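Why do we care about 3D structure at all? Because function follows from shape, and shape follows, mostly, from sequence. That is the central idea of this module. The next example makes it concrete: a single protein chain, its amino acid sequence, and then its structure expressed as tokens.
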Amino acid sequence: MKSEQQWRQELSPEEYAVLREAATEPPFSGEYVNTTTVGVYVCRACGAELFRSETKFESHCGWPSFYAPTDGDAVELLPDTSHGMIRTEVRCRRCGSHLGHVFHGEGYPTPTDDRYCINSIALRLIPVEPTSR
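And the structure:
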């Protein structure tokens, strides 16, 4: 575990605001909103694998959306009653950084009917080269 001073030194002010203070980047502003690159999305703060491109889908909400994390232990879900709403916050299980929120039952045609609405600035995409046959 790192101190908040260490996080401030390692992260940009924008990254720190989202990852450590649970801010939200403006909709449609993040680098991964429209990305279709095949790869693995890791936590920008600690590098833990969080999502894979196969679970990314277009929800038109303004942030990258995934229907499931890499595995059940990749993220931590916490109740969030800030801003007068009842939501479920998504955090990186390894370092506790804020990633975004998850919503259930919105009717998207996905296997889980979950929408992990994640801030691009909380992620780093590691492209995976397609295997040749």
